[in-house]
């Protein structure tokens, strides 16, 4: 798991400046993606592993994002999907330049840029009454869907927005009335024995299950009430960091599936409005192995 040692920041983080930086970086990355969107056949594509692709668009979008973040926040750590990095400083950026690469490469208009800032223990925030961060906490989240021109943003302690309009999660109270999102095993199949019984239960006990192929958007759509809940396994920290704070600030709950980490840094998560989150947690828990795989 990517963590940083406690860092007593001398100057509190200005979350207003941080969200502006993240939005600017997301637009820079999305501009690169969309420049390739209509001639994808010309892209250079590499295979990192089975069903794990990276394209020229991913790499160039990440470079554009990093240029903005490094120029404006040189003291923050960076963990990015394509270039790696490590948690450090008072806070760390978690970056997925193209969440939904397979969708993008197949011309399916459902993908996003995802950028989050995770504050580390000891860090102060420029917020009224702030007492400092006591555990790793996502405090800034941006998920930008350039196909729909939908910009989801969140600031810790302030709220979540879609294109500047405040959003909140659904009020659905029971699973049988809920539409939930998920993601199938596609790269790591080691947890398929745990996941398939969960999917069976969800199919039989919810109004419907959706699998769209972009975790950041699954979380953002749960935050604005399109989905009532969401669970998935086998993700990476950059897939879920931004969506976690967007959902939490929209009144929802997003937790590590094993209830061990302060946010789903290990890539196994349960999310939803509080009632659906609890119902999904109760649904998945009986099928979990006692010891999860090591966090990313």
Automatic annotation (TrEMBL):
GO molecular function, one term: inositol monophosphate 1-phosphatase activity
Record-linked InterPro entries: IMPase (IPR033942), Inositol_monoP_metal-BS (IPR020583), Inositol_monophosphatase-like (IPR000760), Inositol_monophosphatase_CS (IPR020550), Inositol_monophosphatase_SuhB (IPR022337)
Reactions the enzyme catalyzes: a myo-inositol phosphate + H2O = myo-inositol + phosphate
Positions of Mg(2+) binding: 81, 96, 98-99, 239
EC number: 3.1.3.25
Pfam families on file: Inositol_P
Classification via CDD domains: IMPase
A Gene Ontology BP annotation from the UniProt entry: phosphatidylinositol phosphate biosynthetic process
Alphabetical UniProt keywords: Hydrolase, Magnesium, Metal-binding
Keyword Hydrolase included in the entry's annotation: yes
Keyword Magnesium attached: yes
Necessary cofactors: Mg(2+)
Domain of life: Bacteria
SUPFAM superfamilies with a match to the protein in the record: Carbohydrate phosphatase
Family of this protein: Belongs to the inositol monophosphatase superfamily.
Official protein name in the record: Inositol-1-monophosphatase
Source organism per UniProt: Bordetella ansorpii
């Amino acid at each position: 798991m990517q963590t940083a040692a406690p860092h007593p920041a001398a100057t509190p983080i200005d979350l207003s400046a941080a969200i502006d930086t993240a939005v600017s970086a997301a637009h820079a990355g999305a501009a690169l993606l969309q420049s390739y969107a209509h001639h994808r056949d010309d892209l250079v594509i590499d295979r990192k592993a089975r069903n794990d692709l990276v394209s020229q668009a991913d790499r160039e979008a990440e470079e554009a994002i990093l240029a903005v973040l490094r120029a404006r926040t040189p003291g923050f750590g960076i963990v990015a999907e394509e270039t790696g990095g490590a948690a450090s400083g008072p806070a760390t950026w978690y970056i997925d330049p193209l969440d939904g690469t397979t969708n993008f490469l197949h011309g399916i208009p459902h993908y996003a840029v995802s950028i989050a800032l995770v504050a580390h223990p000891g860090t102060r925030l420029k917020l009224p009454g702030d007492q400092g961060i006591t555990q790793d906490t996502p405090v800034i989240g941006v998920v930008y869907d350039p196909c729909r021109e939908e910009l989801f943003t969140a600031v810790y302690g302030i709220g979540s927005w879609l294109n500047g309009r405040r959003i909140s999660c659904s009020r659905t109270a029971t699973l049988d009335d809920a539409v939930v999102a998920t993601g199938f095993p596609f790269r790591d199949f080691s947890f398929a024995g745990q996941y398939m019984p969960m999917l069976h239960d969800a199919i039989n006990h919810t109004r419907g299950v959706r699998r769209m192929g972009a975790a950041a958007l699954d979380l953002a759509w749960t935050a604005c009430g399109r989905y009532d809940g969401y669970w998935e396994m086998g993700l990476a920290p950059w897939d879920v960091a931004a969506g976690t704070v967007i959902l939490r600030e929209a009144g929802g709950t997003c937790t590590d599936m094993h209830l061990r980490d302060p946010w789903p840094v290990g890539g196994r998560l349960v999310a939803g409005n509080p009632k659906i989150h609890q119902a999904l947690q109760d649904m998945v828990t009986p099928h979990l192995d006692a010891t999860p795989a090591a966090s990313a």
